Amino acid sequence: MLLFFLVLSLTRLTRSQELEFQPQPTHEGTTTVNTDLSVAPEIAQLATAIASARPDTAAPRTDGRIAGDLADLAAVPQRWWDLVRFDPDRPLRIHVPGAPGVWLLVLPPGAAADCDCRQATALAGEAVEIAAGEGPGRPLRPGRVRVHGTGSPHRLRGAGHGYSVSLHAH
């Protein structure tokens, strides 16, 4: 974002200056004033210095931003549906191209897998997340991103009679 500040010098002219100098009429009430734009080049130089002093680095990737990106990706099945593979013998962890740190987890019915993700959302089927020391676990729901934060390994278990497909980010 580039900010510009414009400063106008609004000085009252003396009677002798008014007679000598006839500016474009700019009025403040009924008194003629001088609009002095001579400082405009300096203001432009200051604005350039402010704009170039900003770092070109991207904003830090917060949990909220990553969760938003994961929700956006989940909403576009054209980007991930062709990657889904079904293996009846084991869970599959499939990297999503163009989305660093994002993968699909495909669980066969009744299977479980360890997971170290920071965010997750269900795409299809039923799955339950079980954290260390928890009882039956919490269902992972489509359309909602669960944020785990750091250092929270857990297990994901297929809860229904069909395959479970979920999207995860680290």
What does this molecule look like?
- The chain is an alpha+beta fold.
- The protein folds into 2 domains: 44 residues, no CATH class; 107 residues, Jelly Rolls, CATH 2.60.120.
- Helix content is 18%, strand content 31%.
- It is built from 3 helices and 12 strands, in the order βαββααβββββββββ.
- Strands 4-5-12-7-10 form a 5-stranded antiparallel β-sheet, with helices on one face.
- The chain is rod-shaped.
- It starts with 8 loop residues before the first strand and ends with a strand.
- The relative contact order is 0.16.
- The N terminus is likely disordered.
Quick recap:
The protein has 170 residues and is α+β, with helices and mostly antiparallel strands. The protein contains 3 helices and 12 strands; from the N terminus they run βαββααβββββββββ.
State the fourth-level CATH superfamily of the largest domain: Jelly Rolls
Strand coverage percent: 25-35%
**What's the CATH class of the largest domain, please?**
Mainly Beta
Helix content: 10-25%
For the record, the CATH architecture of the largest domain stands as Sandwich
Shape: rod-shaped
Q: How many helices?
A: 3
Biggest beta sheet attributes: 5 strands, antiparallel
Radius of gyration: 31 Å
State the low-pLDDT regions, or none.
1-8
- Secondary-structure-based class equals alpha+beta
Total domains, how many?
2
